[in-house]
Amino acid sequence: MAEDIEAKIRRLRELGKATSAEPEAPPTPTPGPSPKARPPRRVRRLSNIRERERRKRIIIGASILVIIILIASFAAYSWYSNKKADELTKAKQSKLNELNAYFKGPIMNTSYGAAKYNELKREIVTASSVDQVRAIDIKSAYQQVYQKYQQELEEKRKQEELRILNQAKEKKKEEIELAFQPLLSQPLPDEVRSHALQVKESLIDQVESANSVADVNGTDPTPYLLQLWREYYDYKVDSISGDYVVLEFNRAKRIYTKEQAKAVIGSIMNYTKLMGYRVDEVKFVKMALLLTRDRVVGGFLEPGAKVMIFAQNLTGKRYLQIADFGYVDTVLLPADAGIINLNEQQGSSSSSSSSSSSSSSSSSQNSANAGDTTVSTGGSSSSSSSSSQSYTDSSSASYYYSVDLGEIMKAISSGKIQGSEEALKQLKNYGDNLLALEKTLQLQNVPNGVPFLVIVEVPSVYVPDVLTHLNTVYIGEIVEEKT
User: Pro residues bias: where (predicted)?
Assistant: First the structure.
């Protein structure tokens, strides 16, 4: 349509030029008057006048028409030009909107992204036609820039992952070194130390060759350390002489056979807990404890009995096991545990007559009193003959004493008591017989408050705890399981 209008405008212009170029019939020149005589007046024809008027009107009309055509053409051209300019402006604005829609966000923070944006914007602004604007391929340019941006991001991501991976590797290697340090600082045998170093280097190589942080974090030295610590503790158990060892954990000590100790060590699944154990040699020492009867199983313990020792915690009023293994060496009943009363009487007589008849008799009596119980022994004998002669002779003796056991023992040991052999015989095993009598009669004779001197053999590791709780010690006999 625009081309048709332009063609019409060109035709109108050509028509105007042709009209303006047509020569107007000049009027017939009249010769000027001669200075001498006036030329005769020429009479115009009416038809010529009319012809000239007609041509004049035609020229005026044509001129007006040309002017109208020119005005219309200018108006049409202006309208067309404005329309073209408006289309170009809209096309540019649309292309700029497309440009801004693509080129935005982090991609504009890059030098190449900003440069490409400015280049495209300059092409859009300087375009002289809609076709030039439409020919600008923003999407393709953005894809090129975006691909370069993604490659750059991928490279940065790889570098960051590599940095994090290397950082994780260094951290894991430090953790492995620190985890193995407590073990390697122990007096390990050559075999265990060599094994530990080999395992540590293997774990570090595994970390170094890992390709991801997950692989690095998946390298766990815990099971290897658990096995190595078990090997070390088994070595310590085997290196101790004797059949028993002491395992101490959290200040609690217990005695095990070597096989039992290895079983306990093998049952622990956390090597950090296993590190808290201590293995000691069992060395027995004798200790003398002065305990009241109620704290020494009634005093009925016999030498060789296997016992455990307990104590009361004075702060919490709780009872603690401070020795789980020991033996009784001696249990002594003190001399002031009772008073013994001894009474001894002896007598003899003889007689004879001249009728040759004679008779003789003898009697003896001994008595002993222990507490409220009196034990007496006595005897008599007689003989006679029919003789005419007679003779009489008699003698008697009596002894009585009431002293405590300590004084009797002092008197016997110093030889200051008559009949010391008999007294010693009766005092021998007095304490054992007294306790045995209690068991037999099921009657208590010695009060609970009577102290007993107990000599025990306990491992040396228990001695500090026993001494710490010396005034609150209780002894219990280990009873073998009945079948």
Answer: 24-37
> For residue 282, what is the DSSP state?
-
Contact 465, 323 (CB under 8 A): yes
Lowest mean pLDDT among 189-198, 238-247, 366-375: 366-375
Structure tokens given for 90: 């809209």
Nearest CA to 394 out of 444, 351, 334, 338 is that of 351
Answer for the pair 258, 243: CB distance below 8 angstroms, yes or no: yes
Give the type of residue at 261.
A
Whether the CB-CB separation of 384 and 358 falls below 8 Å is answered with yes
Domain end position, chosen among 119, 136, 153:
136
CA distance 306 to 291: 17
Residues written for the chain? 483
For residues 479 and 483, give the distance between their C-alpha atoms in angstroms, rounded to a whole number.
12
Pseudo-torsion of CA 73, 74, 77, 79, nearest 10°? -110
Instruction: Say how far residue 389 (Cα) sits from the centre of its chain.
Output: 114
Q: Residue 121 is inside which H or E element, if any?
A: helix 111-126
> Are residues 295 and 270 part of one domain?
no
The domain tally of the chain equals: 3
List, in sequence order, every residue forming a beta bridge with 456; answer none if it has no partner: 287, 328
- Continuous H helices in 185-257: 190-208, 213-217, 222-239
Rounded to whole angstroms, the Cα distance separating 73 from 119 reads 39
Copy the structure tokens of residue 63: 């001129």
pLDDT for 396 beyond 60: no
Q: How confident is the model at residue 173 (pLDDT cuts 50, 70, 90)?
A: very high
Q: Is the pTM of this model over 0.70?
A: no
Q: Are 196 and 67 contained in the same domain?
A: no
- The amino acid occupying position 37 is A
Q: How far apart are CA 299 and CA 447, in angstroms?
A: 11
Same domain, 236 and 93: no
- What is the Cβ-side half-sphere exposure of residue 94, based on CA atoms within 13 angstroms? 12
Asked if 104 contacts 142 with a C-beta cutoff of 8 angstroms, the reply is no
pLDDT in tens, 15-37: 666 555 555 445 555 555 555 55
- Domain residues for the domain of 103 are 57-136
At 181 the three-state DSSP class reads: helix
In a domain, 15, yes or no: no
287: β partners: 456
Q: Which residues, in sequence order, are CB contacts of 245 under 8 Å at separation 6+?
A: 237, 255, 256, 257, 258, 261, 279, 280, 281, 282
Residue 444 near residue 320 (C-beta atoms within 8 A): no
Of 25-29, 172-176, 254-258, 450-454, the range with the lowest mean pLDDT is 25-29
Assess if residue 26 is contained within a domain: no
Do the beta carbons of residue 158 and residue 118 sit within 8 Å?
no
Which among 219, 204, 260 has a CA at the least distance from the CA of 237? Answer: 260
